[in-house]
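Reopening this ticket.

The earlier resolution said the output was attached, but the attachment link was broken on my side. Pasting everything inline this time so it's all in one place.
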Amino acid sequence: MKEIILIIISYLIGSIPAGFIVGRLKGIDIREHGSGNIGFTNVLRTLGPLPGAVVFAADLSKGIIPVYLSRIFLENEALPVICGLAAILGHSFTIFLRFKGGKGVLTTTGVFLALAPLPILILLALFILIVGASGYVSAGSITCAVLLPILMHLLKVDPLTILFGSIASIFIILKHRTNIRRLLAGKENRFNFSRKRMKKSLQSQE
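Inline output:
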């Protein structure tokens, strides 16, 4: 019974639509602006750096907190993974917005920072290198998604977490299928760190 309660709590934590809430506090419905996504990049593009930073921290925390809660209250090896999955599903299919949410990338990152921090930190460094060298944020995201289960296997992470990582990787790749098509066609927008072109680059990632 306690396990079920923690899973439900994890889903509800993941379901908190941070981007939507921040948008409302600014007097807008973020779903009606930019890409229509409630995630970090659309908030950053639409409302600016400070609201974007708030959503970044919130969405990342929604993945970290459920994993640690499950470890604090119960000793069950599978529960942190299940609670992490519940949080990701909550973010992507939030009950507070008629089961329509974000892509779940930041919340997934938070979950694996709690479950297997070393692989995530290595992939974060790789992500920065790829984006810095190529200018393609999507290429960095897709590459890291592919490498996540491989790296966890090499670093001898437990099999259950590796399986979960494989599922999460497939989910992220599917979410980026339009970006993959644009990359193959040579039509993907490069991320430009100049203030003037940042919005265009961010739009392509939603």
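Reporter confirms the inline version is readable. The chain has eleven helices and no strands. The chain has two domains: 1-115, 116-206.
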